[in-house]
Amino acid sequence: MSAASSENEPSKNTYVVDSESPAELARLLHQDRLFTKALGLLPPLPDKSKIRSIIDIACGPGGWTREAAMTFPSAQVTGIDLSERVVAFAQDQAEVQQIPNVCFTVMDALKPLNFPDASFDLVHGRLLNGFLSQVDWPPLLRECQRVLRTGGVICLTEADWGISNGPISERLSALFTQAMYRAKHGISPSAFGTTVMLQPLLRKAGYQNVQGQALYLEYSAGTEAHYSAYQDIMAAYQLLQPFLVSMQVTTQEELDHLYQQLPSEMLANDFCGMWFFLRAWGEKP
After folding, report:
1. What ranges do the domains of the chain cover?
2. DSSP 3-state assignment of 14?
3. What's this model's pTM, rounded to 2 decimal places?
4. Given Cys at both, which of 15, 29, 65, 133 links 56, Cβ 3.0 to 4.6 Å?
């Protein structure tokens, strides 16, 4: 399934874990808070006062989306996601928090977006590599440009997940990277590679003034993010196990062993770990 698929074809979930799982919903909500706190909402855009309409692609449980709505109270913010369960949760949270300028809708980002041309001042997406294969990026970027107004900004953040001093962590990371490569979500069996391609993809799609910002999140023992990152990683690798086995990069026996050993490694006093991100943005000419 690619973004060039017919609008009438049924949607196919290409996310690498079960997006309808309550456990994944909880993990995404937790990760959303962790990453937004560490990375911030947006890069240093020249004139944020001109932002009146925002769309968040594959918004998940909507943490970033709701935060953007509160940060830009005069803007209308829309989050889209393929999962009905996730969208319903995000909308409920917006109502509980009494955020009037945000809404969520079920929509497949791999198909033409159901918005008129020039509908938004800002298009946002974070960690889209989880459901986009390499061939899906160019069509989605063209569709994002269509719904942007002239001078509007697209802002994307991707990760290559970084390194640690833990052999168990590194083995699991290597297995995940290999599986993503086999699933055509990565450009190399040793690295996702999306961060390397992000700015060239934006330029090739016709965006102007393309810029990038290198970001990181340290989750070593003793840091503020350590235990939150540990919780996210443990939940992620539990949910990723069917995907890793289906891609034939490992066995369930190896995963059971690695997963059992991971807590003692990550909770050790000398554990060191860091995630690396690239935020890239550009303007519609």
Report:
1. 22-283
2. coil
3. 0.92
4. 65
